[in-house]
TrEMBL record:
InterPro entries: A10/PebIII, OS_D_A10/PebIII_sf. This is Chemosensory protein 14 variant. PANTHER family: CHEMOSENSORY PROTEIN-RELATED, EJACULATORY BULB-SPECIFIC PROTEIN 3-RELATED. It comes from the Eukaryota.
Length: 120
């Protein structure tokens, strides 16, 4: 759901790779950093430039199965999903309520979500 491998939409075939070298492990390993990104995505806090880009791109990436994501963005998204599902289900649920209130994406990606459960 939350792709911290942040992206910025542009009218080309993939999102910009400007944010591809963000250290996703550092963000996931820091409650302060992770909470900052989640608060940004939820509209509860200020956004860094990369957080703002993620917030603007996330709905499109969810809707279109991340087809415009670069390889690093897909890898980062998988890592973030695995972390949130297994270690921060509270944040996962908050993001799901905001970005998937009708449970459309949870249903669409059920097999992928179930596959990462327990594989933190």
């Amino acid at each position: 759901m939350a792709c911290v491998a942040v992206t910025w939409a542009r009218p080309e075939s993939t999102y910009t790779d400007k944010w591809d070298n963000i250290n996703v492990d550092e963000i996931l390993g820091s409650n302060r950093l992770l909470k900052g990104y989640v608060d940004c995505l939820l509209g509860k806090g200020r956004c860094t430039p990369d957080g703002k880009a993620l917030k603007e791109t996330l709905p499109d990436a969810l809707e279109h199965e991340c087809v415009k994501c670069t390889g690093k963005q897909k890898s980062g998204a998988d890592k973030v999903i695995r972390h949130l599902v297994n270690k921060r289900p509270d944040l996962w649920k908050e993001l799901a309520v905001k970005y998937d209130p009708d449970n459309i994406y949870q249903a669409r990606y059920k097999d992928k979500i179930d596959a990462v459960k327990g594989s933190a």
